[in-house]
Every structure is written in C-alpha cells, then in structure tokens.
Amino acid sequence: MSSIHAITLDLDDTLWAIGPVIAKAEQHIHDHLRSRYPRIGQQYDVDRLRARRDEVRTDYPEIGHDFTALRHRTFELLLADCGYDRGDADALMAEFLEARHWITLYPDVLDALQSLSARLPLVALSNGNADLERLGLDDYFVGSVNARGVGALKPDPEIFRAACAALQTAPENIMHIGDHPIEDVRGAQDFGMKSTWMNRRANSWIHDHTPDNEVASLHEVVELLELIG
Q: What is the Cα–Cα distance from 187 to 151, expressed in whole angstroms?
C-alpha cells in the first residue's frame, strides 16, 4: 500500500447511524406541520411527505445532489399547494435541519477521531448536509467537502477531486473511509484513492470490486494505520 498522508471520512452511517436520525427529524417536522400548518399536516403523513420529496427530486433533477435544496423546494410546494405562504419554507428548513443534527455518534468515534486527527489531516467527504461545527466535531477536521458544495454526489469523481484539493494531496496518498460499496469504495478507487470499507453491520461483500481494507470501527482504522506505518 502506498504511504497514506491524509484521510477522507464519510459521515452518515460511518460516524453515526443516519436512518434513525432522519426518521426522527421527519416525524418532528410532521408534528410541527400539524401544529403550525394543519392543512398540510392533515393531508400528509410522514410517508406521504417522504413520497412528495421523492417526487420533487424527479421533477427537479438539477438539485438532485442537494438534499437541503430538495427539502426546501418540497416545503415551498407543500406550503403553496395548501394555501400558505411559500416564504415560510426557510423557517421549516431551519426546523428540519435542527432535528437532522440530533445524532448519536457510534461509541468508537470520538476517541478514534482524536487519535486519527493527531496523526493525519482529516477531511469530511459526504453526500449529506451534516454540519461539523454544529455537531461539535469540526476541531478534528481540516476541511469538509459535500455534494451540495461541489454540485455532484459520490461516486462522481468531482467530489473526490475536491477532497484532494482541500488536502493538497495526491489521490494515491489518501485513504477514504466510508460505508457505501459504490459511493465510497468504488468512487474512491476509481479516483485512485485507497478505500476502506466501514462495515459496522457485518454485511457480506457482494460486489465485483474489492475494498483495499475492511473495518468494523474507527478503532480498527487506527490499528490499520499503525500496521502500515
């Protein structure tokens, strides 16, 4: 393995489980809509709100990479369709983002981030819209790259190129760590980075390509770096 000079880290389902976070945030925003905008709350349950967002993603492919813009547009359309001021979408988006940051880190994350960041520069590399500063994690990272800022979702090479630029490091000297076999592992490998599959659920690997490394926690990444020097 080439010498590793820096690390890029996926966030959702790598540092925390995203499914429960989004489910809780969507329930929270539905409760808020029922209270503040009853015509929306009565017409749309949580599942129908999610389906409406998916419809918006189909109707507006130009913002398909931007989860914040997609939800904001969905709120605008819901408000307008139900006879409310679509300008209230800003406040609804803020309400949702507040709940979206109610995360629970995996138990290994804080200790491992401290160890990793003391050894190598870290850049967050995510398709999502988590804010490291809002989460109190920004001190561990030298930068953050996401699909909203780049205009493309992993595994598009542009988002990996942006991460390399942020680190000022060649791809072959960067290890990318993430849970998704295509977005993270395949995307990183295709761009020339070393890939480490975060397999917290002990899933079987069923894809043609093979990750350079497989770990079940960030503690194992620390151990891996010690082994490869």
A: 16
Residue with tokens 């942006």: 162
Q: Which domain holds residue 191?
A: 6-17+104-228
46, part of any domain: yes
The order of strands in the sheet holding 122-126 is 143-146, 122-126, 6-9, 174-178, 194-198, 213-215
Cβ-Cβ contacts under 8 Å for 138 (sequence gap 6 or more)? 132, 144
Return the half-sphere exposure (C-beta side, CA atoms, 13 A cut-off) of residue 27. Answer: 7
Same domain, 176 and 84: no
**Residues in the chain, overall count:** 229
Number of domains forming the structure of the chain: 2
pLDDT at 144 over 60: yes
Cβ(99)–Cβ(28) under 8 Å? yes
Q: CA 132 to CA 35: how far, in whole Å?
A: 30
Angle between helices 67-81 and 46-59 (to 10 degrees): 110
Give DSSP secondary structure letters for 128-184. S---HHHHT-GGG-SEEEEHHHHT--TTSHHHHHHHHHHHT--GGGEEEEES-IIII
In a domain, 51, yes or no: yes
- What pTM does this model have? 0.95
Residue 118 CB-density burial (10 A; 0-12 exposed, 13-18 middle, 19+ buried): exposed
Whether 37 and 63 map to the same domain: the answer is yes
The most distant pair of C-alpha atoms in the chain lies apart, rounded to whole Å, by 62
Q: Using the predicted structure, report yes or no on whether residue 161 has a pLDDT greater than 60.
A: yes
First to last CA, the chain: 10
Checking if the pLDDT of 38 tops 60, the result is: yes
